[in-house]
Every structure is written in C-alpha cells, then in structure tokens.
C-alpha cells in the first residue's frame, strides 16, 4: 500500500532499504509521521500510534479515517491548476476558519501539486501533461482501503520526545524520520540542532527498539559511538531540488543489529 500523499522528505525511495530491517514488534510508534510511507508499506502491528506536530498533517489523517467519503469528493473534483493550488494555500495558511475536510483537501493539494511536494510552491513544468497525469493518478490511488488501514490506529498531535517517553516499552518499535536540522521542509519550521540533540538523548534511554532516518550529524555520530548503535548509510539522489542529480547521504541508525533482522 502506498501513502495517499507525496511528502517532501518522505521515504518512498528508501523503502527497499528500510522495510527489510524492521524488527518483529507488537507496538509500532511513528513520532514524525508526515506522509507515512513506511507505515503504509509495512505490515500492521497489534498496536499502532502515529503522531505529527503539524496540526494540518494530523487533521488530514483524522479526516481520512473518519470522513473519507466527503474528502474523496473534494479530491475527485480537483484539477491540476495553479488557481486551485492558490486557493488551497489560503485554506492551509488559515486553517481554523475552514471545515476540517476542506483543510484536509488543502493539505492534499499542497503536497500533490507542490514543487518537490513542498507546500508553498506550485509544481509548474514545461511538460504540464505529465504533472496533470500525476495529479490524476494520485486521485485514483485515493481509495477507501487507505481509510480502513487507519481503523485501529491511534492518531496523536504531540511533541515527538514527549510521545516517545510516554509510549516506550520493551515491546515497542519506533520508526523515526525527524525533520532535517535547520532545513526548510515546507511543512515544518524551526527544527533546530537543540531539538535533534534532545531526540538523540531520549533515544539513549529507551527500552524499546528504534530505527531512525536522518542526515549525517556530528551529535548523531558521537551517539553512535557512545551507545554502540548500528548504522547503514545510503547515498541517495536528492530529488527535492531544481538541480537534478544532486546527492545526499541518508543515515540509518538503530539500537539493534540490522544484520540480525
């Protein structure tokens, strides 16, 4: 199953590396949910908790879960259009004066029609037919099975570190995809090195298992050595750039042996 949105910083291209190294678990917690590419691709767990600090993200999944038919109507009626994108941005930036399903629609438009799936910049192109087809295909993929996948899932809107501390047990597996430090990810603002350090310090103390995707970071490198964490770094193409073929290193870090899974 694929995520219903295309999310900047999402892990669709990393799934082939991530899914094989997820350990057995009874409780699945994803503190930085975003597009949820890993969640939708993996097998369900007995208990599942998804979380995002961005209220627009959380509202989208609430509406997908509880108000699918109304949201589906709005999405099906959405053309690939700069004007529609502008209308969606008005809703996104003023969420509390619009109905929840309209807010969810605006979030969907912002990710699907945004450049590199960022909210705030329309995906203009010299090959408009390609972009319009992408928009159409995403509408086709917006199926009720996505809503059903959330039937027994707990959806939270909390600080990630707070959630980790609350949900930590020896049976819990955390998949973490935090915002990249000091980068503009469109949906996030102000994720600092201090926030990242607090996350790393929290992961040092947990009873459960974790797997984290991030950019390389000096504080993370030190923690890997200090805690004997396992790692597997991947060289990837950075698609979220107008300059094609730029590359990045995606740092995978875990507190369990990745080769033993």
Write the layout of secondary structure elements.
Blueprint (H helix, E strand, L loop, with lengths): L14 H4 L8 E4 L6 H5 L5 E5 L3 H12 L1 H9 L5 H12 L6 H13 L15 H14 L2 H6 L3 E4 L3 H8 L4 E5 L16 H11 L5 E6 L3 H10 L2 E8 L9 E8 L7
Helix pairs in contact: 3-6, 4-6, 5-6, 9-10
- CATH classification class of the largest domain: Alpha Beta
CATH architecture of the largest domain: 3-Layer(aba) Sandwich
Q: State the separation between the terminal residues, measured CA to CA.
A: 22 Å
Anisotropy-based shape: globular
- Number-wise, the strands total 7
Strand content: 15-25%
Q: What's the CATH H-level superfamily name of the largest domain?
A: Vaccinia Virus protein VP39
What fold name goes in the CATH topology slot of the largest domain? Answer: Rossmann fold
Characterise this structure.
The chain has about 260 residues and is α/β, with parallel strands linked by helices. The chain has two domains: about 1-55 and about 160-260, 3-Layer(aba) Sandwich (Rossmann fold), CATH 3.40.50.150; about 55-155, Adenine-specific Methyltransferase, domain 2 (Orthogonal Bundle). Helices cover about 40% and strands about 15% of the residues. It is built from eleven helices and seven strands. It has helices at about 15-20, 35-40, 55-65, 70-75, 80-95, 100-110, 130-140, 145-150, 160-165, 195-205, 220-225, and strands at about 25-30, 45-50, 155, 170-175, 210-215, 230-235, 245-255. A seven-stranded mixed β-sheet has the order 3-2-1-4-5-7-6, with helices on both faces. The longest helix has 14 residues, at about 130-140. The mean pLDDT is about 90.
């Amino acid at each position: 199953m694929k995520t219903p949105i295309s999310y900047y910083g999402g892990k669709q291209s990393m799934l082939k590396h991530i899914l094989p190294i997820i350990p057995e678990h009874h409780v699945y917690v994803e503190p930085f949910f975003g597009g949820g590419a890993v969640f939708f691709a993996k097998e369900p767990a007995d208990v599942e908790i998804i979380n995002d600090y961005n209220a627009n993200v959380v509202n989208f999944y609430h509406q997908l879960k509880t108000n699918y038919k109304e949201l589906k109507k709005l999405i099906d009626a959405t053309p690939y259009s700069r004007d529609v994108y502008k209308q969606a941005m008005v809703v996104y930036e003023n969420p509390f004066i619009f109905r929840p399903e309209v807010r969810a629609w605006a979030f969907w438009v912002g990710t699907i029609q945004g450049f590199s799936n960022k909210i705030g910049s329309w995906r203009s192109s010299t090959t408009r037919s390609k972009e319009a087809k992408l928009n159409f295909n995403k509408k086709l993929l917006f199926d009720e099975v996505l809503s059903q996948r959330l039937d027994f899932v707990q959806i939270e809107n909390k600080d990630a570190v707070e959630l980790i501390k609350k949900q930590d047990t020896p049976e819990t597996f955390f998949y973490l995809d935090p915002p990249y430090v000091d980068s503009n990810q469109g949906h996030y603002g102000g994720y600092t090195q201090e926030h990242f350090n607090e996350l790393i310090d929290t992961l040092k103390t947990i009873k459960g298992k974790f797997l984290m995707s991030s950019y390389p970071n000096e504080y993370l490198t030190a923690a890997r050595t200090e805690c004997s964490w396992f790692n597997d770094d991947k060289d990837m193409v950075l698609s979220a750039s107008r300059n094609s073929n730029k590359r990045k290193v995606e740092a995978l870090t875990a507190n369990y042996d990745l080769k033993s899974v």
